[in-house]
Design a protein that fits this description.
Blueprint lengths: L3 E4 L2 E4 L9 H25 L6 H5 L2 H22 L3 H7 L2 H14 L5 H20 L4 H14 L2
Antiparallel strand pairs: 1-2
Helix pairs in contact: 1-3, 1-5, 4-6, 5-6
Amino acid sequence: MAAYGCRGSNLTAGKDEEHRTTLRAFFLVILCTIFTSAGQILYKIGASRLSLNPILIIRNTPLLLGMLSYVIGAFLLILALREGELSVIYPIISTGFVWVSLFSARLFMERITLQRWMGIFTIILGVVLMGIGSRAPVQNREAEKSHRRMIGK
């Protein structure tokens, strides 16, 4: 495990290694969004049964499963962050809006309007662009490595 320390205003890895987001990290964060979206759906179902009675809250299975789903999602996100860049991984979380919209339409018969479809498309396009933008051209990576060697990082 690499030690992290502050140098100037940047948080830099103790090792001079190339930080790339792995395919496994992408898979883990997508899985995270599915679990957290399922948690939202379960919260919606549990909310219809919600009572302020603590005993009834403990017996509210959808609510408890929603919480468990969130915990699993958080764990998957942490695993993804170990293998990927935060600036690449975190925007993928926005796909949760896509999953919730699709699940809500299927389970609760909520209508997806043209504006919502446009929003879904925009989110997916944004995630794709962020992913493509994270792949720096080789010459830029070489220039960055050279710059780091010059300044002693």
